[in-house]
C-alpha cells in the first residue's frame, strides 16, 4: 500500500520532463545510450 501511495504521489512523466534540466531517452541500445551520456557529459563539462 505504501508503494502505491508513493507512485500516485509522483509527478506525471510530462511534468518531470518540463522541470528537468536534462532528459536522457533510454529507449535505445546500451551502446547508443553510452554515446548519448558521454556526449551530454562533455557538453555539461563545457558549460560549467
Automatic annotation (TrEMBL):
Keyword ATP-binding: yes
GO molecular function terms noted in the UniProt entry: ATP binding; dephospho-CoA kinase activity
GO biological process terms on file: coenzyme A biosynthetic process
Keywords of the record: ATP-binding, Nucleotide-binding
Record's protein name: Dephospho-CoA kinase
Organism whose genome encodes this protein: marine sediment metagenome
Higher taxonomy: unclassified sequences, metagenomes, ecological metagenomes
Amino acid at each position: 500500500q505504501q508503494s502505491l501511495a508513493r507512485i500516485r504521489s509522483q509527478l506525471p512523466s510530462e511534468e518531470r520532463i518540463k522541470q528537468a534540466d536534462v532528459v536522457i531517452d533510454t529507449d535505445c541500445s546500451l551502446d547508443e545510450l553510452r554515446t548519448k551520456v558521454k556526449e551530454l557529459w562533455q557538453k555539461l563539462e563545457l558549460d560549467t
